[in-house]
Amino acid sequence: MNIPRVTLDQWRALQAVIDSGGYAQAAEQLHRSQSSVSYAVNRLQEQLGLKLMHIEGRKAVLSEAGKVLLQRSRQLLADAGAIEQQAHHLEQGWEAEIRFAVEAAYPTQKLMDVLKQFEALGKDTRIRLQEVVLSGAEEVLLNGEADLAISPYVPHGFLGEELVKVRFIAVAHPDHGLHKLDRDLTVHDLNRETHVMVSDSGSKGIDAGWLSDSHRWSVASLESARKLISNGLGFGWLPENEIQQQVKGGELKRLRLREGAQNIGNLYLIYADPEQVGPATRRLAEILKSCR
């Protein structure tokens, strides 16, 4: 095993000299004496046997070798900082992984915003993200396969907090036969057409459809449902926030229904065990609640 002869402190000194433009500025940045910064850089070059930089006027300039090694040293110091941060989180009890089950109807953009905020705080905590539908969240909670879940209902034996409301609207392709009727549609009209719906990912097999099942296509995801409906293969209720672009672009058109043209569903945030929540999971939940 080769033991490094140089130290992180020496690389940090070199970076400061180059980034700030000279020894005096680096000393001020590092809150050290100029002589100690100069010694660290000179000692680094001696130990490596390479000239990494020289002074032109009052400005520090890297050699070709210095450019290559300085770039590598930046990653080295970043990795060292990440290790220290992870150690700090572990000391506080931060989990190495969060198992997060998310109902498919939860707004995609909100989810991306939440994950970006959390990633900036807890890069050393992995997130195992699982998309679920209807009773899928309940199933993973009961099976101990999730630490945190977003569900369309609060399962028996759990506590949940309302997180967001999702509006589902009835849509079909503009050329679909239902639009050609050019009037308010009835249940009878709908029952004669193919209803595209997302099936329950849990074993309960909850049926979210209220129409005849003789003309029904079930798919595993909202994205699949959107693609089918956008291509004229049936109609269905889709989350309004997820299809705004398709409606504006003319791929989808709202159906004129006498009743039931839109439905509003609640989504709830649920801990698997509120008494055993780790700080990383709790922080993720706080970000979710702040992004309502």
Structure in words:
The radius of gyration is 29 Å and the shape is elongated. The chain is α/β, with parallel strands linked by helices and 292 residues long. The model has no long low-confidence stretch (mean pLDDT 89). It has eleven helices and eleven strands. Strands 3, 4, 5, 6, 9, 10 and 11 form a seven-stranded mixed β-sheet that branches. A two-stranded antiparallel ribbon has the order 1-2. The protein has two domains: 8-91, Arc Repressor Mutant, subunit A (Orthogonal Bundle), CATH 1.10.10; 98-292, D-Maltodextrin-Binding Protein, domain 2 (3-Layer(aba) Sandwich). Strand 1 and strand 2 (59-62) form a beta hairpin.
Task: Pick out its properties.
7-stranded mixed beta sheet; 2 domains; 11 helices; alpha/beta; two-stranded antiparallel sheet; 292 residues; D-Maltodextrin-Binding Protein, domain 2
| Mean residue pLDDT | 89
Helix/strand class = alpha/beta
- End-to-end separation: 52 Å
Low-confidence stretches: none
For the biggest sheet, the summary is: 7 strands, mixed
Helix content: 40-55%
Q: Give, in order, the helices and strands.
A: HHHEEHEHEHEEHHEEHEHEEH
- The CATH topology name of the largest domain reads D-Maltodextrin-Binding Protein, domain 2
Overall domain count: 2
Beta percentage is 15-25%
**Which CATH class of the largest domain applies here?**
Alpha Beta
Using the alpha-carbon principal axes, give the shape.
Answer: elongated
Number of E-type strands: 11
* CATH architecture designation of the largest domain: 3-Layer(aba) Sandwich
Rg (C-alpha, Å): 29 Å
> Number of DSSP helices?
11
